[in-house]
Amino acid sequence: MLESLLSTTLWLSRPTVAQAPVRQPTSEEIYQACTQNRAETLPNPFVDVSPQDWAYKAVLTMHYCGAFRKAAPRSLFEQPAQPKSSTSQ
Prior knowledge:
This protein has a domain at 24-77. It is 34% helix and 0% strand. The protein is built from 3 helices and no strands. The chain has helices at 2-12, 27-35, 56-65. The chain is globular and about 60 Å long.
């Protein structure tokens, strides 16, 4: 029992490895990957999803492309414009 508790304590106290910052793809890269059904070629922003996971492609597709079926206009992949504040008097 004590051995199990010690090994669990040691495992929990291990330092976490810092993740390198993920390169942000351009809107053109995202558009091309999504229209070609190749979202898995884009950088992985998730530390808990590895390329070996069975749902890797689906997770990256939903992250970058959303519910997309190769017919979305390019404007969906552009960065949303900041809403302009209206000054009402």
